[in-house]
TrEMBL record:
<dbReference type="InterPro" id="IPR006669">
    <property type="entry name" value="MgtE_transporter"/>
</dbReference>
<feature type="domain" description="CBS">
    <location>
        <begin position="128"/>
        <end position="190"/>
    </location>
</feature>
<feature type="transmembrane region" description="Helical">
    <location>
        <begin position="348"/>
        <end position="369"/>
    </location>
</feature>
<feature type="transmembrane region" description="Helical">
    <location>
        <begin position="274"/>
        <end position="291"/>
    </location>
</feature>
<dbReference type="InterPro" id="IPR046342">
    <property type="entry name" value="CBS_dom_sf"/>
</dbReference>
<dbReference type="InterPro" id="IPR000644">
    <property type="entry name" value="CBS_dom"/>
</dbReference>
<keyword id="KW-1133">Transmembrane helix</keyword>
<dbReference type="InterPro" id="IPR036739">
    <property type="entry name" value="SLC41_membr_dom_sf"/>
</dbReference>
<comment type="subunit">
    <text>Homodimer.</text>
</comment>
<dbReference type="Pfam" id="PF00571">
    <property type="entry name" value="CBS"/>
</dbReference>
<feature type="domain" description="CBS">
    <location>
        <begin position="192"/>
        <end position="250"/>
    </location>
</feature>
<feature type="transmembrane region" description="Helical">
    <location>
        <begin position="303"/>
        <end position="327"/>
    </location>
</feature>
<keyword id="KW-0129">CBS domain</keyword>
<dbReference type="Pfam" id="PF01769">
    <property type="entry name" value="MgtE"/>
</dbReference>
<feature type="transmembrane region" description="Helical">
    <location>
        <begin position="375"/>
        <end position="401"/>
    </location>
</feature>
<keyword id="KW-0472">Membrane</keyword>
<keyword id="KW-1003">Cell membrane</keyword>
Length: 441
């Protein structure tokens, strides 16, 4: 900071370039616009590219940051970034701005970025990189090593080298270790592994993340429908995807539109939260009107009102637990391996056991507290039935949404809780009304 303020370029560069790119990005994020302008003068576009690849999209507005740079400087920086990282940045901009930068960028880099930009967002094509090393099956290890040394500086990873045939179709893969230990005159076809796992360019990024987790890969090849090798997805990109998907699911479970960005403006934060809150407000009004329909029952047995929060709260809690398990199972793919009937039976059994235990427990608590055995039995039976239905609802709603190709996380905790409130009130007062004669004795 001292070198930056005093504009000692050599001292600043010596200290700054000795930092890891992640730490460079952290330092840059703390600067104001005036100090950032100095950094642009002190660093080359290539050096700035290393920093920019480590900036967090949820902490920085790429549109504003690029606007602070000279357009030619920004274009050169984007040209020196890995193509998939440059695409992530350009996806944050308006189409006119993207076209402007592509026009003044290096022609080869611009073409690579254009090839990636047309892939649908959140697919394998949108997160893959075209900077990989491919060799031929009918060449020697010696010639492959020559290609590796030549192309390694531009490649995103060199730990896997992919093998293609004459038509650029994916034929196999060889690890860097196997390539190094093989005899120089050995043909690649003899040492490569032809049982290579790949993903389609249109595959959802969440499924790609699961595959890399299951196979413990550092990189995964991306192919088209004819098995042509188009690019690779590296583990660092998958870590970003997993964080993004987890944040997205959590925000939906919380009933918030987006938690990826921290809104320092209260108005912006309120705008994101209000839609769900307004929906839940009207559902809450429906719950209130439902209680109003049982006004006669409450007038005759006022003590029933004491247990409304208890029963509604238990329904909401057990429904949210089942929802969390179901959404996580869908997200990890575990539930796809299991029969839906097995899931339903398991959740029904879970609801039955928890309902029975809680129901019996509350029956005795109410009896010793109020001295009313029938009242205790009424509350206990209501909780028993409510917990079974709430558990089933918490698991079945996300399963149904998943079947209909709707993101199951939108069956958020607040939504399930409110629905279960309505169900529990109906059960509780329905039973109370049916046995009113026993309660008023």
């Amino acid at each position: 900071m001292e070198a930056l303020y005093s504009e000692k370029i050599d001292d600043f560069r010596a200290e700054f370039l000795d930092l890891h790119p992640y730490n460079q990005a952290e330092f840059f994020s703390e600067l104001d616009d005036e100090d950032r302008a100095k950094v642009y003068n002190f660093l080359s576009p290539e050096e700035m590219a290393d920093l920019f690849e480590n900036l967090e999209a949820d902490e920085e507005d790429f549109k504003d940051v690029l606007a602070q740079m000279n357009p030619n400087y920004a274009a050169d920086m984007l040209s020196n970034m890995y193509a998939d990282d440059a695409v992530d940045v350009l996806n944050e901009l308006d189409k006119d701005q993207v076209a402007s930068y592509l026009t003044i960028m290096d022609e080869e880099a611009a073409q690579e970025i254009k090839d990636l930009l047309h892939y649908e967002e959140y697919t394998a094509g949108s997160i893959m990189t075209t900077e990989f090393i491919a060799i031929s099956a009918n060449q020697t290890v010696r010639s492959a090593m020559y290609i590796l040394k030549k192309e390694a500086p531009q490649a995103e990873t060199i730990y896997y080298i992919f093998v293609v045939d004459e038509d650029k179709r994916l034929a196999g893969v060889i690890s860097l270790r196997d390539l190094i230990v093989a005899d120089d005159e050995t043909m690649i076809a003899e040492v490569m592994n032809d049982r290579v796992v790949s993903v389609s360019v249109g595959e959802d990024q969440e499924e790609v993340a699961r595959m890399m987790r299951d196979y413990n890969f550092l990189a995964l090849p991306v192919v088209d429908f004819q098995n042509h090798l188009l690019g690779i997805i590296t583990v660092d990109d998958i870590m970003d995807v997993m964080e993004e998907e987890a944040s997205d699911d959590y925000s939906k479970l919380a009933g918030i539109a987006d938690l990826d960005t921290v809104d320092r403006n209260p108005l912006a934060a309120a705008k994101k939260r209000l839609p769900w809150l307004i929906i839940l407000l009207f559902l809450g009004m429906f719950t209130a009107s439902l209680i109003g329909r049982f006004e006669d029952t409450l007038d005759k047995v006022a003590i029933l009102a004491v247990f409304i929060p208890l029963i509604a709260g238990m329904a909401g809690n057990t429904g949210t637990q089942a929802l969390a398990v179901a959404v996580r199972g869908i997200a990890t793919g575990d539930l796809d391996k299991e029969s839906k009937w097995n899931i339903i039976l398991r959740e029904a059994g879970t609801g039955f056991i928890t309902g029975a235990v809680c129901g019996i427990l509350i029956t005795f608590v109410v009896y010793f507290w109020k001295g009313e055995l029938f009242l205790g039995a009424l509350v206990g039976i209501s909780i028993f039935i409510t917990l079974i239905i709430a558990t089933l609802a918490g698991s079945l709603v996300p399963l149904l949404m998943h079947r209909l190709k709707i993101d199951p996380a939108v069956a958020s905790g607040p939504f399930i809780t409110t629905i279960n409130d309505i169900i529990s009130i109906l059960i509780y007062f329905g039973i109370a009304t049916a046995f009113m004669s026993y309660l008023t004795k």
